[in-house]
Design goal:
The chain is of the alpha/beta class. The protein has 3 domains: 273 residues, HUPs (Rossmann fold); 147 residues, Anticodon-binding domain of a subclass of class I aminoacyl-tRNA synthetases (Four Helix Bundle (Hemerythrin (Met), subunit A), Up-down Bundle), CATH 1.20.120; 58 residues, no CATH class. The chain has 16 helices and 15 strands. The chain has a 4-stranded parallel sheet, with helices on both faces. The protein has a 4-stranded antiparallel sheet with strand order 5-6-7-8.
């Protein structure tokens, strides 16, 4: 039997057995996008990784409430406590209302993520719709003695918190080093003079007259700090403490570290039992950056319209590429890697299609139960999709051997194998047969007509016509294979 599910917990720095707080229910929170621009390649890894986590937990029988927020206010440029709101800045550039900007780019995000067959969250709260909850949380933190008001803004008192709590436990930061690094130079920055300590962070910011997005509060007109938003929304929909909080490694500090501090200061408990972080996507070994012109938009990838792209890549090719690396490892994007993923995905999908046509025999050369155990063992090992996919490729080899008459499988094992492959490929990994969805069911009858014409040509010894049909189909992306049970085909191109 496969071992129980084990998950790497960033908070402890160790692999731990996954034991939900209130089984069979699981609360899962993922930091969603700040919607001020079109989604790029880096925005795909988090949704795909946590889609697998969501799907696999559901497969194991858990009832998952998955919350992924939309940040539409309070996220300032450079992730700082001073400066313009990212969405408000974009609204000025495009001469639109901030909520028009937020809606437009939220729609764009949904369009791209839906293409990847990522399940929508159970709840998708917007920060702007939860201002009251954020204000109430700030008030409680002040009452508990861990925050202070200064000139209409409210700041979290990191030093006061550190007297009784470990600020930096999640990210591995040491407060003394942070204080030394801040130095007097940061106190000279605009707005820093309000803080008792330069490492204090904003829970609520006073809005200047020209600041577009602002709300009334006990401290005057203002807007929430970036960190308080997730703390308030996760608590509202998942409770003061829940099972899993996720996000990218780039959010470890200061965002998630600050979330823990806020929630602990308010509710006297760490908000999440498990903290799961996925690593970054690089491009040809470099971090994505506007200055390097390597920030590939998701739509550009699908259309092949970027100088770094040699061709267009389908949504499932991108998803399969991401799943072939463990979520905690860095993933380097490149055309060669995408092309290899494209071929690998097609090989797997061809095997899935071929599986439906296999004829059972009197014995089995395939250990279906062992295959299932190996796949589940991989997924139970911190959602190790690369190992699970390697097992699926092993199954593909078996399927081809059975089809070619070099191996056999009983009727019972064949039905078990069909159920296993379909469940893992489509339900757990969330892959789709894009050819089928694009109308392969309409193409197949036409191919069968051409195959019949080729067979007639062979029977009449018109080998030139037979070869022409085969070669033309191959050029079009359909490889014919002659076997004992007749002629089948594989799709070789997207």
């Amino acid at each position: 039997m496969p071992s129980p599910l084990k998950v790497y917990n960033t908070l402890s720095g160790q692999i731990e057995n996954f034991n939900p707080i209130n089984p069979p229910f699981v609360g899962l929170y993922l930091c969603g996008p700040t919607v001020y621009g079109y989604p790029h390649l880096g925005h795909t890894r988090g949704p795909i990784v946590f889609d697998i986590i969501h799907r696999y937990l559901s497969y194991l029988g858990y009832k998952v409430r998955f919350v992924r927020n939309i940040t539409d206010v309070g996220h300032l440029v450079n992730d700082a406590d001073e400066g313009e709101d990212k969405i408000a800045k974009r609204a000025k550039i495009e001469q639109l209302e901030p909520m028009e900007i937020a809606q437009h780019y939220t729609d764009s995000y949904h369009f791209c993520i839906d293409k990847l067959n990522v399940k929508r969250p159970s709840i998708e709260p917007r920060a702007s719709g939860h201002i009251i909850e954020q204000i109430e949380m700030v008030k409680q933190i002040i009452e508990n003695g861990f925050a202070y008001e200064a000139n209409g803004s409210v700041y979290f008192d990191v030093l006061k918190y550190a007297e009784t709590n470990d600020y930096g436990k999640l990210s591995g930061r040491i407060l003394e080093d942070l204080m030394a690094g801040a130095g007097e130079a940061r106190r000279e920055l605009e707005g820093q003079e309000e803080k008792k300590n330069p490492n204090d962070f904003a829970l609520w910011k006073k809005a200047s007259e020209e600041h577009i997005m602002q709300w009334p509060s006990p401290w005057g007109q203002g807007f929430p700090g970036w960190h308080i938003e997730c703390s308030a929304m996760s608590a509202k929909y998942l409770g003061k403490t829940f099972d899993i909080h996720g996000g990218g490694m780039d959010l470890l500090f200061p965002h998630h570290e600050s979330e823990i501090a806020q929630s602990t200061a308010c509710n006297h408990v760490n908000p999440a039992k498990f903290w799961i972080h996925h690593n970054m996507v690089t491009i040809n070994g470099q971090k994505m950056a506007k200055s390097l012109d390597n920030g590939i938009l998701i739509t550009e990838l699908f259309e092949g319209k970027h100088p770094l792209l040699e061709q267009a890549y389908s949504p499932m090719t991108l998803k399969f590429f991401i799943l072939q690396a463990h979520y905690r490892s860095t993933l380097d994007f490149g055309n060669d890697a995408l092309k290899a993923a494209e071929k690998g995905l097609q090989r797997l999908m061809n095997a899935v299609v071929l599986l439906q046509t296999l004829k059972p025999g009197s014995s089995s050369d395939i250990e279906v139960n062992t295959l299932k155990e190996n796949i589940l063992e991989a997924l139970n090992d911190d959602f190790n999709t690369p190992i699970a996919i390697a097992q699926l490729f092993e199954a593909a080899n078996w399927i081809n051997k059975v089809n070619d008459g070099n191996a056999s499988i009983t009727a019972a094992d064949l039905e078990t194998l069909k159920s296993l492959i379909n469940t893992i490929v489509f339900d757990v990994l969330g892959l789709m047969d894009e050819k089928k969805d694009m109308g392969t069911n309409l193409v197949d009858p036409l191919l069968q007509i051409l195959i019949a014409m080729r067979n007639d040509a062979k029977a009449e010894k018109d080998y030139k016509k037979s070869d022409d049909i085969r070669n033309n189909l191959l050029a079009a992306g359909f490889e014919l294979k002659d076997g004992k049970e007749g002629t089948t085909y594989n799709i070789t191109k997207n």
